Amino acid sequence: MASARALLGEATARDDLARLTALPWRGVLSPSGLTANVRRWCPHCYRQMRTRHGECWDPLSWCLAPVTCCPVHARALAMHYPGCGVVQPWLPHDTVVGWCAECGADLAAARPEADRVPLPSRRIWTARVCADLCAAGEAVARQPSRAATPRDFSHAVRHLVDTLGDGNRSAFARRIGVSVHSPSRWMATGTVGIESLLRLCMQLGLHPIQFLLRSGDLPVGPREVRAPPRPRRRSPIDWDRIDA
Length: 244
Prior knowledge:
Distance between the termini: 65 Å
Low-confidence stretches: 221-231
Helix content: 25-40%
Structural class: mainly alpha
Number of domains: 2
Shape: globular
Number of helices: 9
Mean pLDDT: 83
Largest sheet: none
Radius of gyration: 22 Å
C-alpha cells in the first residue's frame, strides 16, 4: 500500500495521501481482511454530497471490510446498482464517482434491499467506530509519533489478560469470545486483524482508538465480561437405541 501511495503521490504532486488511507495504523492493524472485496456506497450520502459540494466521493470507512452500513444514516451500504446488477469497480476508468460504470445510471438513486429494515446495533456501532478510526488516522498521519507500536499493543493485551483473566490467556479468550490462541498471538506479534480488534472492544466496552493511540493505560478494571455463547454441536438422538 505504501508503494502505491508513493506512486500516486508522485503522479498527483501530493505528499499527504497517507491521510486518506489506513497507513497510519499499519503498525498494529494487520492488512489481512482490512479492506472490502467490493466497492460499497451510501445513496443518501451521495445525494447530500451533490447538494452541498456538487460532487461525490467515497469515504475511507466504506472501504473497510467490517463496515456494512453508513455511520451517518444507519442504512445498509449498496454493493451493486439494482438496474444492471453490476458490482462497481474501485477505480472506474471512464465514469466519475457516483455514476454506474456499466450503464451510467445515478448511484444515488440505488436503494439497497434492506434500506428500510432496522439494522442491528452492532453493525451501526462498527460503522461509527471505524469512521472514528479514519478521522483519527488523518490526525496521526500529521504526527506519526502518536500511533501505537506493536510493542504498545502487546503490552495492552498483556494488561487485559492480567486484569480480566488473572494472567490466564485461555480464560481471558473464553471470556471475550475469541480463540484461545488469539491473546498469545496478539502479544507475540503486536498486531491484530480489524475484525478481532472490533470484537475485543465491543466485549470490553472500549473504543479501538484506545489501542491504536499512545494514550497510556486502558481504563479497564476487574469486572465481569460476558461473551456471547458459542454454539455447541450435538449428536443426533438415536431413539431406536433408547427404546431398546
